[in-house]
Amino acid sequence: MRSLCFAASLCISVTASATPALDAHWDPGAEDCTKTAHPPLETYRYDARTWIIREDLCSTWEAPFIYLLVGEREALLIDTGDVADPKHRARLAAAAGRAAYAADSGA
């Protein structure tokens, strides 16, 4: 077991464990996005409580990743995305909600 300290007053204990392999295959996008349909978001379940969501290359050239970490009572969504479209944000909220529900229900 190791202790990690952040600032002088916050220390946590960390137990080493096996890290799951990241076996995600992301959509590579397209040269002409108008000719091929692409899902605006891709989701990958990394483990029982961690989801990786990626914005599509046809929505934004950066194709940023969004991380959903689900705890026992709360969830944290780390959104590095850049799409301001309200419809796209609604799809992200729905995807995050489904992932959090699946993690909570053990699905």
Figure out the total of helices. Answer: 1
Order of helices and strands: EEEEEEH
Number of strands: 6
Fraction of helical residues? 10-25%
Q: How many domain units? A: 1
Structural class: alpha+beta
Sketch the major β-sheet. Answer: 4 strands, antiparallel
User: In one word, what is the shape?
Assistant: globular
Mean pLDDT: 75
What spatial order of strands do you see in the largest sheet? 3-4-5-6
Distance between the termini: 30 Å
Report the sheet-strand fraction.
25-35%
Spatial extent as radius of gyration: 17 Å
Describe the structure.
The strands form two sheets. This protein has a four-stranded antiparallel β-sheet with strand order 3-4-5-6, with helices on one face. Strands 1-2 form a two-stranded antiparallel sheet. The protein has one domain (30-105). It has one helix and six strands. The protein is of the alpha+beta class and 107 residues long. Strand 3 (41-47) and strand 4 form a beta hairpin. Mean pLDDT is 75; it is low at 1-5. The radius of gyration is 17 Å and the shape is globular.
